[in-house]
Diadenylate cyclase spyDAC (Nonlabens ulvanivorans), 225 residues
Amino acid sequence: MELPDLRILDVIDILLVAALTFYLYRLVKGTPAINIFIGIVIIYIIYSITETLKMELLSRALGAFTGAGVFALIVVFQQEIRKFLLMLGSTNFTSRKGFLKQLHFFKDDIDTDHTAVDQIVKACGEMSNTFTGALIVIKRDGSLDFVKNTGDEQDIVVNTSIIKSIFFKNSPLHDGAMIIEGNRITATRVILPVSDNRSIPQRFGLRHRAAVALLKEVMPCYCGK
């Protein structure tokens, strides 16, 4: 049996499909949509096998299901599609990280070290004693560019006194959220989307609703009040 000729374009095509599938998996990992995604992949694999083996009846049935399922997927994955488009729209192609790192094909997670965590916890404890409100977003491996651009860019080492001074009620930077990446404060006065979920109890204010909304937009992050 002769093997089909494999062109360079075929290799590129395979790599692009594999990369897209990998990124879609990362996008839905940790969400309820992951089980649906795995089911779709299994159905597509079975469909490809039936096509190769010339199993006409099963192939047609799966083909019809796959064709009609496109519209269903748009409904089921609307949050994930929205997140993907937001990521693309907020990607800075000229940044030093580059587009591939924005897609996380080369993992570039930012870990917040223990010293920074201790400073954040201490600041939150002291602000709690004085009833000072704060909204802090700690970045993990999700893109926050789409909300970071709404605030003031900063580059400050995480420090208890700095955090407290930023959220002091008379500070010009206290209104809005703070974004922390690694051990640095990268943005202040950030405007976060607010959840319109009616199941959230009325006793929770805008900061709580903003935290819920951001977790829906970008799962890999922590929000603290």
